Amino acid sequence: VDHLVVESKASGLSVIQEMKRLWAGEGWHIEGKTPEGDKVARAVSIQGLLSGGLVYAPDRDWAATVIEETSVFPRHRYRDLTDALTQGLSHLRKLGRLRHQEEVREAELLAGRFQPELVPLYDV
Q: pTM of the entire structure?
């Protein structure tokens, strides 16, 4: 971990202060962030990342719990894991660290680095 994002609402403010006090100088950053939009809008905004296969879920009990909660969101009894997932993925998108292959190709094309795959015109 080199960067921790905590929702800076309600109890999040005191969590941020306490974590900074406890782990000051550990070499990683704690950022308070106010989420944009409501929980449902944030979930909809990252839906394509999940359905596009950009998120890996390891074979672990905790991952199954996250998948189960997000699969029935917002009708699940709990919503915290889904909210944390959506905010984390949105943060990675804004940093440019989570992109669809088409976005990578477009960026390379704009930068003049795109090398299309060469396909022979006929069998050799």
A: 0.77
CB 46 within 8 A of CB 86: yes
Distance CA 34, CA 5 (A): 10
42 band by pLDDT with thresholds 50, 70 and 90: very high
- Contact call for residues 81 and 70 (beta carbons, < 8 A): yes
In the structure encoding, which two tokens stand for residue 64, read together?
Answer: 């199954």
Assign 35 to helix, strand or coil. Answer: coil
C-alpha 84/C-alpha 102 separation (Å) is 26
**Amino acid, res. 87:** Q
Distance CA 39, CA 43 (A): 6
